Amino acid sequence: MLTQEQNDALTQIGPGTPMGGVLRNYWYPVAFTRELDEFPVKATRLLGENFAVFKTREGGYGIVAEKCPHRGASLVYGIVEDDGLRCGYHGWKFGTGGDCLEILAEPDSSEKFRADCSVRAGEAQELGGLIWAYVGEGTSPELPRYEAYTMHGHRDMGHAIIPCNWLQIMENAVDPYHVEALHGNYFEFIAEQTGMEMPGSFGGNKHEKVAFDDFEHGIIKRRLLVGQDEESDDWKIGHPLVFPYKMWVGGNGVYQMQIRVPIDDTHTNVIFYTVHAPDGIELPDDVHTVDYPIEWMNEDGTYIVDYIEGQDIMAWVSQGEIADRVNEKITKSDVGVVACRRMFRKAIEDVAEGKDPLAVVREPHDVIKLPLERSKFGRGAEFASDWIDNGSMKFSPIAQEMKQLHIDAAKAREAMDNA
Fold first, then answer.
1. Among residues 169, 170, 198, which one has the least CA distance to residue 185?
2. What is the domain extent for residue 205?
3. Does 18 fall in a domain?
């Protein structure tokens, strides 16, 4: 357990806070590429601050603080031009770097005066169907080109705004035993009570042991299930918590980066960024890229718990807006959670000393490949179908098409093996 001061230091992310200083060293998705193609300016809230993210007519991207420095009108309701964003209220124009380019009512204003009228700006780029923003101080790091965002496959992005702090979601990423309890025993109970069929890939996953290894992008989580040996992918390869706000998970042709964007202290934008790329079948050049909201609460205010991520959301949100780590009862099975907190405290210390925290990427690169088991739970092709039917992907407009893709790929692999 932690003191209240320690819990505050780990969970408060606004400007000037220790964790806010850590998190402002990274890039975050703030819009879907589709959104700015359909309408070129959008409001976004990130790390407790409000911004306008936009796409210029020349095709560049920008992100600026929402309030115009003139008289505080929202730049979300501005006019997007070739090289910047013009405030809709009085026509002050700002470039993607935040510099004041023009004052409509004072075309002869001095360069010095306009320099004093700049708006705070970050940087924005497009990658993998998402618009990413960096809003920290100093020279921006490289936008990490993790494999999920660069690999060829169908992109399927479910999302929801969750009313809780981002850290309790990340702690879930290094808590293997919840798979056995929440997605196994509890799921079986819900299936029995509702008459639904329990997905075979998620039942009976009893743990023999777990392990956690620090690496340059976070923590690799390993599990050995009853009936597996140490050559199994779940133990030998594992999958990582990607510091500070992602988890790379999947297998059997379904690859998922779970993204938890800290909106503010009590809200998180959760994106299940899934790529369908099964072996054995050639994908077309023109692959799908879709985004869609997922459902997690019933009209009566109860949680929807008949699918995998809905169960996770129940566990995250029911802890409260910010989990009470002062009165919790930590045990040996929480070793991954303890390691996660230790890693975040180390990041706070590094930033205080003027160092880059973990997983800040400074070198240009083509792609970053992360460890990931290819055979999840040893379940084979069944795992992909079970996850589509019983996970957040069931809300996808292409769910059945993707399920058929995996079925066809499995048949193709079997035919090649028997040839």
1. 198
2. 147-418
3. no
Are both 151 and 68 inside the same structural domain? no
Helix (H) or strand (E) holding 346: helix 335-352
Q: Is residue 355 part of a domain?
A: yes
SS3 state of residue 38 = helix
Length of the chain: 419
- Shared domain for 256 and 397, answered yes or no, is yes
- Inside any domain, residue 14: no
How many domains does the chain contain in total? 2
What global pTM score does this model have? 0.95
Give pLDDT tens digits along the chain (419 positions).
899 999 999 999 999 999 999 999 999 999 999 999 999 999 999 999 999 999 999 999 999 999 999 999 999 999 999 999 999 999 999 999 999 999 999 988 888 899 899 999 999 999 999 999 999 998 999 999 999 999 999 999 999 999 999 999 999 999 999 999 999 999 999 999 999 998 887 887 889 999 999 999 999 999 998 988 998 989 999 999 999 999 999 988 999 999 999 999 999 999 999 999 999 999 999 999 999 999 999 999 999 999 999 999 999 999 999 999 999 999 999 999 999 999 999 999 999 999 999 999 999 999 999 999 887 766 667 888 999 999 999 999 999 999 999 999 999 988 888 87
Task: Report yes or no on 1 lying in a domain.
Answer: no
Are 251 and 238 spatial neighbours (Cβ–Cβ below 8 Å)?
no
Same-domain pairing of 179 and 326: yes
| 127 and 225 assigned to the same domain | no
- The CATH code of the domain that includes 126 is 2.102.10.10
In angstroms, the Cα distances linking 100 to 57, 91, 109, 110, 180 are 18, 11, 11, 11, 56
242 and 277 part of one domain: yes
Transcribe 73-99 into DSSP letters.
-BGGG-EE-SSEEE-TTT--EEETTS-
Q: Tokens for 252? A: 């059997």
With beta carbons less than 8 A apart as the criterion, state whether 338 and 118 touch.
no
